[in-house]
Design brief:
By secondary structure, the protein is α+β, with helices and mostly antiparallel strands. It has helices spanning about 5-10, 20-30, 50-75; strands spanning about 5, 35, 45, 90, 95-100. It is built from three helices and five strands; from the N terminus they run E-H-H-E-E-H-E-E. The relative contact order is 0.12.
């Protein structure tokens, strides 16, 4: 059975932090599921499965990015000095150093 999620539930149950305007912009540029119009009163809702898929895609993208960064740190050419907690991010395909973003890793 298809479940619908209204705007307040996006925040309280799904943890979506966006305002109504931000969601509208994301819907228009295709980066958030489109809402359904529920009637003439202006009520709208989102299909829960689509919202859950959106969140799962965001988690997968985060995990891929983290795995790529860890692969760079595991590369034998990168060594951390004692006490150093991070290394420069490096493009896995080109080997070129990316922006100054750094991945914090715990040191024993």
């Amino acid at each position: 059975m298809m479940k619908l999620v209204r705007f307040p539930e996006l925040k309280s149950k799904k943890g979506i932090p966006y305002s109504r305007d931000q969601i509208r912009r994301k819907e228009n540029d295709g980066t958030f599921p489109m809402h359904l119009d529920l009637g003439e009163g202006g009520a709208i809702a989102w299909i829960e499965d689509e919202v859950d898929n959106y969140l799962a895609e965001r988690i997968e993208a985060r995990d891929r990015k983290l795995a790529e960064r860890r692969a760079v740190l595991d590369h034998p050419g990168i060594e951390l000095s004692p006490g150093q907690e991070s290394a420069p991010a490096q493009d896995v395909q080109t080997g070129k150093q990316q922006s100054m973003r750094r991945l914090r890793i715990p040191c024993d």
